[in-house]
Design goal:
alpha/beta, NADP, seven-stranded parallel sheet, 283 residues, binds NADP nicotinamide-adenine-dinucleotide phosphate, oxidoreductase, 9 helices
């Protein structure tokens, strides 16, 4: 199997850290980035990763410059994993556009900037894989998850457009859609929820707070297993041996259930309304 060089964003905890450890265990080359000082990911350097400070919310010119340096110092990159992200909650009527924009700066625009910075390199060598870490949350709306959920919906669209525009250049894109995995994503220091005061939403807000307090540490997904599957799928080995890489993949039983239900519900709408839907064309 060819040795690949992977660049993963957001490596100081959770999926990012596990990606790097699994990549190294396969004797591939791992480049770990963190938005903070590289000392935050020193333990990954200690086990063999190259480490860089990369804030994907920085201006595009800065992201481009760091990426160029990384490509130059590491002799190229084969796989980019757009992993960095966090959860910002909020109810539609209460959440400000500034809060949504801040969420998008990391979850959406950061991934776009990192990917755009690498595409010239991938085009030049006519190969490369872009991995987006979406979410099962990118498939269905919830009452109080507007910034996060919509950011993951957006990633789905960006991924599909990217994929359609670079396939002829030998470049691939995949989006993984994990369910709940036991990382730091719902740690109270990481998950944000702006206080608000519209009484009609008190019950929904209380429900969300209760959910967030209960979920951290009791998620059903094992990140180590999830990462192993994702890397197998990108490399076409292990559980994915002999299979073509799909354009998207739910990860975890909860994600499968939720995404399958959304597909079935949508198909049921298409079936029930087919005559009406198709009645709008010119005669
Ligand atoms: N765990 C789940 O249940 C789950 C489910 C679906 C999707 N995901 C997605 O998986 C990705 C990784 O999350 P995780 O579960 O591994 O959570 P995590 O342990 O909290 O790790 C997220 C990483 O993102 C980076 N990051 C960049 N900007 C950030 C910001 N403004 N605020 C907080 N973190 C920021 C951080 O790394 P640095 O500080 O090193 O940059 C952090 O280590 C995210 O995109 C998340 O949306 C997770």
């Amino acid at each position: 199997m060819t040795q690949l060089t992977w660049l993963v964003t957001g490596c100081s905890s959770g999926f990012g850290e596990k990606f790097i450890l699994d990549i190294l265990s396969r004797r591939d080359k791992a480049i770990a980035t963190s938005r903070g000082p590289v000392s935050r990911i020193q333990k990954l350097k200690d086990v063999g990763a190259s480490t860089y400070s990369l804030d994907i919310t920085a201006p595009k010119t800065e992201v481009d410059a760091v990426m160029s340096l990384i490509i130059q110092e590491n002799g190229g990159i084969d796989v980019l994993v757009n992993n960095a992200g966090y959860v910002e909650n909020g109810i539609f009527e209460e959440v400000s556009c500034e809060t949504i924009l801040a969420q998008y700066e990391t979850n959406v625009f950061g991934s776009i900037k990192a990917t755009q910075a690498l595409l010239p390199h991938f085009r030049q060598k006519r190969s490369g894989t872009v991995v987006f870490i979406g979410s099962m949350g990118g498939w269905y709306g919830v009452p109080s998850g507007v910034p996060y959920v919509s950011s993951k919906f957006a990633l789905e669209g960006f991924h599909e457009c990217l994929s359609a525009s670079v396939a002829h250049l030998g470049i691939k894109s995949i989006i993984f859609e994990p369910g709940f995995f036991r990382t730091q994503v719902f740690h109270p220091d990481n998950t944000k929820y702006q206080p608000s005061d519209i009484g009609d939403y008190d019950a929904l807000r209380a429900e969300t707070t209760q959910f967030l307090q209960g979920i951290q540490g009791s998620q059903t997904g094992d990140p180590k297993k999830g990462i192993k599957v994702m890397i197998d799928v990108v490399k076409g080995e292990g559980v994915a041996a002999g299979k073509a890489m799909p354009e998207r993949m739910p990860v975890g039983a909860d994600a499968l259930g939720a995404i399958r239900k959304k597909c079935e519900d949508t198909l049921a709408i298409c079936k029930e309304w087919e005559e009406v839907i198709t009645s709008t064309d010119f005669e």
